[in-house]
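Hey, quick one: can you model this chain's 3D structure?
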Amino acid sequence: MNYRHAFHAGNHADVLKHAILLYCLAALKRKDTPFAVLDTHAGRGLYDFASSEAERSPEWRDGIARLWDWPEPPALITRYLEAVRSFNADGALRTYPGSPALVTTSMRDQDVLMACELHPEDAGALRRALPRAPNVHVHERDGWEALGALLPPVQKRGLVLIDPPYEATGEMDVSVSALRSSLKRFAHGTYVWWRPLKSSAVLDATDAEVRSFTDRETLRADLWVATPQREGKLVGSSVFLVNPPFGLRETLREALPFLADALTKGQSGWRLS
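Sure thing. Here's the predicted structure for all 273 residues.
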């Protein structure tokens, strides 16, 4: 596997995905009972914007950097920026937390993180990046296999983040199959599934398939900063949720137009369905 998220950390796709993730975690904390988070493709945990990868492909400059000093962003983005700032104590944007690191900012002692990363080097970096705590577990294993092994969680409530690199052929189909089987075991969990937005028609067909095998509530949020193309650089992404928390649709209706303007490179836009 050649994909390295260090080249893309903090870009427009991360902004969308992580802002939604943090909202979902805050919603889970509205109840006192514990919850579990399963991150199927966790990555390294922390990313240094001074690294050679970030300097060679500084996508973060057109992502989180555009929002860093924004005076009054929408509430969804305010929460996201506060979480990232907790990793940059002096106020300068140097470090970007990946999804598992962001999850640890929203966990209580009774909650559990299960972060899966197959690549040995990245799994080692992930262990060093995350707090050494009894409720933080790093699994050096295949994320697809982990869905079958770790669901349903002991905690009975939880969130599943599915965010593969989409490097292997057919990974979209694998994601759909994984959702189908996971929902049979953990139907009431919140699922956050990130996808590249290359063709809206392809995602429309994929989403229709998912909706055909579940009667659970779903929500899709798209954001693009230039006109999406089937080939070439990623300029848009989509997050598909099963069992989205109450209030997220309305919150996104405020935040998505803001992000489309703030992160624009030209033909920006958004969609909520």
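One thing worth noting: Residues 5-272 form a domain with the Rossmann fold fold (CATH 3.40.50.150).
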